[in-house]
Automatic annotation (TrEMBL):
The keyword Ribosomal protein applies. Pfam families: Ribosomal_L29. Belongs to the universal ribosomal protein uL29 family. GO terms for cellular component: cytosolic large ribosomal subunit. The keyword Transferase does not apply. GO terms for molecular function: structural constituent of ribosome. This is Large ribosomal subunit protein uL29.
Length: 73
């Protein structure tokens, strides 16, 4: 699975962005639950999911502040 890019997050509209944040946080919760119960097979997913959440929240914050970032990462 490839890393999601911040450009992918910028393509989402506000409702999709909010829903994606909720979905990513649910995934992180599931990963923590699996780790606690000893069923976690992919511990690297923590890093991937946290990074994706950070990118989504950054884009959401930019939109709330009215910042237009045209640079593509």
């Amino acid at each position: 699975m490839a890393f999601p890019k911040v450009a992918d997050a910028r393509k989402l509209n506000d409702e999709e962005l909010a829903q994606e944040i909720v979905n990513a946080k649910k995934k992180l919760f599931q990963l923590r639950l699996e780790q606690t119960t000893g069923r976690l097979e992919t511990p690297h997913q923590f890093k991937h999911t946290k990074r994706w959440i950070a990118q989504l929240l950054t884009v959401q914050g930019e939109r709330q502040r009215g910042v237009s970032n045209t640079t593509q990462a």
